[in-house]
C-alpha cells in the first residue's frame, strides 16, 4: 500500500506567536521571541535568555473542560493541547465527538514531563504527605500525558503513541504518522510535539556549556545559527501540530490542503564513526537525508529550501557540510537554507514540529523566512554553499519542495520532504 | 455545624469537579456524585483531599468508600467534625 499523505491542519504555540496567523506574520517579518529572564540571572545560569510562548492559560477553557483544566499544571501538556486542537479545528473538524474516530490516531512527542509537577510530587512524598497528591499527578508525569489529553478530548481511536527522540522528536512524530497513513493503517494522524524547558532541564544544558552566554543583555541577538559569533543555543518552549490525512480521504471531504508529505526517514548513526551521545555521525545524517529523498521519489535538485536543525553551535558547519554531501549540491547550486531557531531558540522536542509548521507555511505562501543574526556566517559555511543562499531578509520565491531535518542526542536523525500538493 | 451548613460548604468543594453546575445548584442529600454530577470516579480522591482540608478532618479508606452520594458525605463529615481527630 502506498497512499499519498497530505497536510490539512496546522497548530502552533511558539515564543513568537501562539497561533498560526500570528506565527506566520512573525516568521515573515523576522520577529524574535527571545527574552531575558531575571530568574536565570538569579540562578547564576551562564545563559540568561530563552524563548517562552506568551501563553494565556485561561484560554484553555475553549479547548478542554473546566474539570479537566482544574488541576492541570503541566505546561508542555498545555502547549500540546492548544497546538493539537488548533490543528484539528483548522482541518475543519469539531472538537466534541460522540463516538471514537477509529480511523484517526495521534503521535505526539515530548522529552521530559513538567518538572514542577514532578517536584510537587517529590516534595509531598518526602514530607510523608503522599495521600495529598490527588488523582491528577500520574496523568501529568507520565510521558504519554500529552497524547492522553489530546486523544481523550478528541476521541481519537487509532494508534496513540508518545514518541521521544530528543531534538529529533517532532520531526520523527510527523514521519511516524505519515508512515501509518501511507501503509494504510490509519486515515488521519494528528502529529506533533511539545516542550516546556523548565529551570532544571535548562540548568542541565547550561552546565554542558552548550548555551548562548554572550548576549544576555541583547536577547534578540542571542540565537545566532550559522554565525561565526554563535556561542551556543538558546532554549525555547512550545508545541507544533499537524493533521496528516490520506489524500483520497481529504479530497472526498473537500478539505483544505496545505501541502504533501512526499517522504521521510528516521535513523541513527549508531554512535559510531564520529557519532556519540551528543554528536551526530555524518554518515548517519547523510543516509537519513538521502533515504528521505529516495522515499519521496524526487531528485535532490528539486529541493528549493532546506529548513535545517542549525542550533547555533559549532555543529552548524558540520550540518551544512552533511547537507552538501547528502544533496550533492554546493556553492550557488545549494538551495536556500534557514533556521527558525534564530527567532525562537531551540525548543528541543518541540523544535521539529514547530519548524515543520514554519516549513509548510513557507511552502504554502512561497517565501523563505530570514535568518536573524547572520551578519557573519561561519567561513566553513561560506566555503561550502557561498553567501547567496543564506537569506537575512524574507525572500519571496516559488517554493515547491522543502527538506526539513532535525538531529538529537543519542545520534538520532529525522528528515521530511514536503511539497506543494499537485 | 448542622447538615444544611455542611451541604452548603460541600457544594463549594464540588464546584471544580463537575461540569453540571445546574445540578450542583440544586444539590440535595440524594444527589449521587458519579451518576448525577458525572464526576469521574478517579477524582473522588481529590474531593476527599479537599474536604479534609476544608473541615480539618481525616477521612480514612473505610469512611471514603461510603461517600458516593451527598447524604453519605455529610454523614462522614458530620461524624468526624463532632469527634475531633
Tell me what you see in this structure:
The complex is a heterodimer of chains A (422) and B (85). In chain A, strand 13 (401-408) and strand 14 form a beta hairpin. The longest helix of chain A is centred in the N-terminal third of the chain and has 16 residues, at 75-90. Chain A is of the alpha/beta class. Chain A has 15 helices and 14 strands. Chain A has helices at 20-29, 38-42, 66-69, 75-90, 115-126, 138-141, 145-154, 169-182, 199-207, 247-252, 282-296, 315-327, 341-344, 351-365, 379-385, and strands at 5-13, 34-36, 49-51, 104-109, 160-161, 188-195, 238-246, 259-268, 305-307, 336-338, 367-368, 395-396, 401-408, 412-419. The two termini of chain A are 20 Å apart. Chain A has two domains: 5-259, Peroxisomal Thiolase, Chain A, domain 1; 264-419, Peroxisomal Thiolase, Chain A, domain 1, CATH 3.40.47. Chain B has one domain: ACP-like (Non-ribosomal Peptide Synthetase Peptidyl Carrier Protein, Chain A). Chain B has five helices and no strands. The longest helix of chain B is centred in the C-terminal third of the chain and has 13 residues, at 70-82. The relative contact order of chain B is 0.19. The interface between A and B is small, with 10 and 11 residues.
Describe the secondary-structure layout.
The complex is a heterodimer of chains A (422) and B (85).
Chain A: E1 5-13, H1 20-29, E2 34-36, H2 38-42, E3 49-51, H3 66-69, H4 75-90, E4 104-109, H5 115-126, H6 138-141, H7 145-154, E5 160-161, H8 169-182, E6 188-195, H9 199-207, E7 238-246, H10 247-252, E8 259-268, H11 282-296, E9 305-307, H12 315-327, E10 336-338, H13 341-344, H14 351-365, E11 367-368, H15 379-385, E12 395-396, E13 401-408, E14 412-419
Parallel strand pairs in A: 4-5, 4-6, 9-10, 9-13
Antiparallel strand pairs in A: 1-7, 1-8, 2-3, 6-7, 8-14, 11-12, 13-14
Helix pairs in contact in A: 4-7, 8-14, 11-12, 12-15
Chain B: H1 3-14, H2 21-25, H3 44-55, H4 61-65, H5 70-82
Helix pairs in contact in B: 1-5
Amino acid at each position: 500500500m502506498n497512499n499519498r499523505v497530505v497536510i490539512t491542519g496546522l497548530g502552533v504555540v511558539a515564543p513568537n506567536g501562539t497561533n498560526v496567523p500570528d506565527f506566520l506574520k512573525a516568521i515573515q517579518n523576522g520577529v524574535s521571541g527571545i527574552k531575558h529572564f531575571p530568574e536565570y540571572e538569579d540562578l547564576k545560569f551562564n545563559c540568561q535568555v530563552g524563548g517562552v510562548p506568551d501563553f494565556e492559560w485561561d484560554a484553555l477553557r475553549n479547548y478542554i473542560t473546566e474539570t479537566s483544566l482544574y488541576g492541570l499544571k503541566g505546561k508542555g501538556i498545555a502547549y500540546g493541547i492548544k497546538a493539537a486542537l488548533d490543528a484539528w479545528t483548522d482541518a475543519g473538524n469539531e472538537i466534541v465527538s460522540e463516538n471514537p474516530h477509529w480511523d484517526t490516531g495521534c503521535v505526539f512527542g515530548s522529552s521530559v514531563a513538567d518538572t514542577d509537577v514532578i517536584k510537587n510530587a517529590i516534595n509531598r512524598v518526602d514530607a510523608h504527605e503522599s495521600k495529598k497528591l490527588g488523582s491528577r499527578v500520574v496523568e501529568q508525569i507520565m510521558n504519554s500525558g500529552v497524547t492522553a489529553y489530546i486523544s481523550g478530548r478528541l476521541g481519537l481511536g487509532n494508534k496513540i503513541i508518545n514518541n521521544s527522540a530528543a531534538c529529533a522528536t517532532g520531526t520523527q512524530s510527523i514521519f511516524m504518522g505519515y508512515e501509518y497513513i501511507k501503509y494504510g493503517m490509519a486515515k488521519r494522524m494528528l502529529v506533533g510535539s511539545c516542550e516546556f524547558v523548565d529551570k532544571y532541564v535548562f540548568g542541565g544544558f547550561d552546565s554542558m556549556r552548550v548555551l548562548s552566554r554572550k548576549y544576555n543583555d541583547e536577547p534578540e541577538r542571542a540565537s545566532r545559527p550559522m554565525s561565526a559569533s554563535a556561542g551556543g543555543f538558546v532554549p525555547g518552549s512550545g508545541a507544533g501540530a499537524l493533521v496528516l490525512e490520506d489524500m483520497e480521504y481529504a479530497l472526498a471531504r473537500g478539505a483544505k490542503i496545505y501541502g504533501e508529505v512526499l517522504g521521510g526517514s528516521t535513523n541513527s548513526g549508531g554512535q559510531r564513526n564520529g557519532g556519540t551521545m551528543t554528536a551526530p555521525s555524518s554518515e548517519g545524517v547523510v543516509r537519513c537525508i538521502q533515504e528521505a529523498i529516495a522515499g519521496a521519489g524526487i531528485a535532490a535538485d528539486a529541493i528549493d529550501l532546506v529548513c535545517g536543525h542549525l542550533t547555533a553551535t559549532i555543529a552548524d558547519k558540520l550540518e551544512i557540510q552533511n547537507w552538501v554531501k547528502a544533496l550533492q549540491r554546493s556553492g550557488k547550486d545549494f538551495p536556500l537554507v534557514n533556521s527558525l531557531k534564530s527567532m525562537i531558540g531551540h525548543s528541543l522536542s518541540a523544535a521539529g514540529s514547530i519548524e515543520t509548521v514554519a516549513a509548510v507555511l513557507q511552502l504554502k505562501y512561497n517565501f523563505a523566512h530570514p535568518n536573524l543574526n547572520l551578519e557573519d556566517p561561519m567561513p566553513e559555511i561560506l566555503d561550502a554553499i557561498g553567501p547567496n543562499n543564506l537569506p537575512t531578509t524574507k525572500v519571496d520565491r516559488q517554493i515547491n519542495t522543502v527538506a526539513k531535518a532535525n538531529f538529537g542526542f543519542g545520534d538520532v536523525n529525522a528528515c521530511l520532504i514536503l511539497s506543494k500538493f499537485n | 455545624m448542622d447538615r444544611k451548613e455542611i451541604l452548603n460548604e460541600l457544594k463549594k468543594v464540588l464546584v471544580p469537579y463537575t461540569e453540571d453546575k445546574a445540578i450542583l445548584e440544586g444539590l440535595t442529600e440524594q444527589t449521587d456524585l458519579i451518576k448525577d454530577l458525572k464526576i469521574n470516579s478517579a477524582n473522588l480522591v481529590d474531593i476527599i483531599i479537599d474536604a479534609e482540608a476544608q473541615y480539618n478532618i481525616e477521612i480514612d479508606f473505610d469512611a471514603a468508600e461510603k461517600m458516593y452520594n451527598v447524604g453519605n458525605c455529610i454523614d462522614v463529615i458530620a461524624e468526624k467534625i463532632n469527634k475531633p481527630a
